[in-house]
Amino acid sequence: MVSENIKNFVEEIRNQVQKEAKYIELVFTIYYLINLVEPSKRESFQEAINNAESIEDVYEILDALKLQIGAQGVKKLLRNL
Questions:
Q1: E strands in the chain
Q2: Checking phi first, is residue 2 left (phi over 0); if not, alpha (psi -120 to 50) or beta?
Q3: Which of 23, 15, 17, 21 is nearest to 52 (CA)?
């Protein structure tokens, strides 16, 4: 049987993860999107996400990633015309 201390500890961790779930999902999404960025710019995005201090910072990085990936798509499309 599991002790009360362990049950409380596990419950505390679950509550913390639930509170931060959106942030955690967002950060993992950003790491995935960074892999879609051209290699010469990946390090800059990785550094930015590692230095993010708030959820607002993370959303700004996400917006920049969207712009970067969109620009790469346009460049690829224009080359193929």
A1: none
A2: beta
A3: 23
The total domain count for the chain is 1
Distance CA 35, CA 42 (A): 7
Contact 72, 37 (CB under 8 A): yes
- Tell me the residue type at 44: S
54 φ, ψ (degrees, to nearest 5): -150, 170
Predicted model pTM: 0.72
5-14 per-position pLDDT tens digit: 999 999 999 9
* Cα(21)–Cα(40) distance, integer angstroms: 30
